[in-house]
Amino acid sequence: MKIKYDKEVDVLSIRFSEDKIQESGEDKKGVIIDYDDKGNIVSIEVLNASKKMEHPNSLIYEIA
Q: Which PANTHER family match (predicted)?
């Protein structure tokens, strides 16, 4: 998994795999989900991330 925040364009990207993106859809305004050819989620992008979350450039990662 790769997580990247680009402050210049204010986009948070979470990439789950390197599979080729076949389809994209906007789940909610400014939240784009990308799918592979089998319908699996490849990545999620949050546009205008700083307006949708407090600290898009910090990460707390937990494995349970």
A: SSR1768 PROTEIN
Partners of 2 in beta bridges: 15
C-alpha pair distances (Å), 26 with each of 11, 23, 33, 34, 58 = 14, 10, 6, 9, 24
How far is the C-alpha of 13 from the C-alpha of 46, rounded, in Å? 6
Contact 49, 29 (CB under 8 A): no
- The pLDDT tens digits for 8-57 are 999 999 999 999 999 999 989 999 999 999 999 999 999 999 998 888 87
